[in-house]
């Protein structure tokens, strides 16, 4: 490595031009300082154009037109339209009076119900028995069961209603005995007022005036046979007759062994009795106010 020497030609050139370089550097520094000073002096006086925000004004009509039409939305029924449930009135079925059928079937038994659609018929065809409900087709025929009465059934045989009598009975027109309204004298009215006052104090007193005895067929409970108690005023006034068989009470099926016990336990809570009785094979509704 060569030792440093002041006699180097490069160093000699640098020394010779020192004055010029110093002047150039000084000029650059002065210009830079002048530019910075100018920015500092003129910056406070500079103004930036800023557009002032103004709210947009719309005509009332334009705003109203842009709003959602809620009335059309409400009427569109997106989830379906509510309809109140329509309850059909309960109509007591009219007994059919149809000509005797020529079908080769035998009516072995008939079970009527206060709800006609739940009535049953036991029909034999070709030595075979089967139980049929309303609107069911009898096996081996084209006939459909239409109605069950206590002594006959009505069948739809190729669009024609016909009667099949219970085995052993001759064909006859159905007979219905409707309850007849009774005119009460003043003494009977007074007695009824006392009876109802007594029952209102103790609901179980109803059984002192309407006696209910179990009615059984071959050990099966068919309901409760009704008879008048210590006086007949209430029994007759509500339209009951001796021999009526109660099958339902306030919706409870009295042919169920436990139904009567349940009704007796709740009797003090009841304000009325809606009784369904079988009379001559036909159901009748009896209303008793407690």
TrEMBL record:
Task: Kindly state a single biological-process term from the GO annotations of this entry.
Answer: protein secretion by the type II secretion system
Q: Which family does it belong to?
A: Belongs to the GSP C family.
Q: Which InterPro entries match?
A: PDZ_sf (IPR036034), T2SS_GspC_N (IPR024961), T2SS_protein-GspC (IPR001639)
Q: Where in the numbering of this chain does the Type II secretion system protein GspC N-terminal domain appear?
A: 28-166
State the organism named in the record: Vibrio renipiscarius
Q: Which Gene3D superfamilies match?
A: 2.30.30.830, 2.30.42.10
Pfam families per the UniProt record, alphabetical: T2SSC (PF11356)
Q: Which keywords accompany this UniProt record?
A: Cell inner membrane, Cell membrane, Membrane, Protein transport, Transmembrane, Transmembrane helix, Transport
GO-annotated cellular components:
plasma membrane; type II protein secretion system complex
Q: In its UniProt entry, what is this protein called? A: General secretion pathway protein GspC
Q: Which residue spans traverse the membrane?
A: 21-45
Location in the cell reads:
Cell inner membrane
Q: Which residues form a coiled coil?
A: none
